[in-house]
Amino acid sequence: MLLAIFQTLYKRKEKIEDIVLTIQQSSSKELDDFIVQYEPFILNTTSTICGRYITKQDDEYSIGLHAFHEAINLYSYKKGASFLSFAKLIIKRELIDYFRKESRHQHVTATQSESDELHNEYDLHAYDSYIKNFDELNRKEEIIHFNEMLNQFGISLDSLVDVSPKHEDTREHIFSVVEIITSDEEMLTLLYKKKKLPMNLLTSKVELSRKTLEKHRKFIIAMCIIAANDYIYLQSYLKRGD
Q: Which residue numbers delimit the RNA polymerase sigma-70 region domain (predicted)?
């Protein structure tokens, strides 16, 4: 059945995104077959994120596999990114959660045996250093992905500093606009398709004028991209008052 799906889609020159959306409506057998086909991708992505060679016997692979499954279930064109880019973000998010939990566990077990105090102290220092480097690397990769998304709209990362709303009440209004766009599938689809704000629909749903919306266009689009994607580090920019 899955082979038939692939053959039909490729004949129509459909992308992997269309295959994923089709599989979402298919049986578990099609889903399992798809995951098996992308096991090399999962292994490679997990190894890259962890900075070491990962095998199917490693816990990290199981986490990556589960995350890939989750990415299939969660993906939609509203994400604005390719499926594989989205899957990488989900795998990265789950692995980061795993490493942070492991780090906390290391701190707990370190106090359980005084005889191993020095050894545990060394392990904790090394592990904390690894987590710090891991976070730094993945934060950079997330920013690179975000920048690539911005470039599709003709927006540079540096320009966001100048267009960010300075007044708190303006920021509140802008974040309300972002919530309206990202919760409306039609508007979000138009945003990604036309690479501009869906002004006609937007002005009928918000109190801000077209002039104000246009003035803050770049910032609104940037926040919509963050809100629609599963970024780990950039989500903090969506918090009111930040």
A: 35-104
Residue 50 domain-assigned (yes or no): yes
Confirm whether pTM is higher than 0.85: no
Count of the separate structural domains present in the chain: 2
Is 141 a domain residue? yes
Cα(113)–Cα(64) distance, integer angstroms: 32
**Is there a single domain that holds both residue 136 and residue 190?**
no
- The helix (H) or strand (E) run that includes residue 181 is helix 168-182
Q: Are 82 and 95 in contact (CB under 8 A)?
A: no
CB 223 within 8 A of CB 216: no
Span 65-84, pLDDT tens digits: 999 999 998 887 666 667 88
Six-digit token string for 105: 């566990």
State the amino acid at position 38 in one-letter form.
Y
Distance CA 201, CA 184 (A): 10
User: Half-sphere exposure (CA, 13 Å, Cβ side) for 139?
Assistant: 10
Reduced to 3 states (helix: H, G, I; strand: E, B; else coil), residue 89 is helix
**Under a CB-based contact definition with an 8 Å cutoff, are residues 102 and 50 in contact?**
no
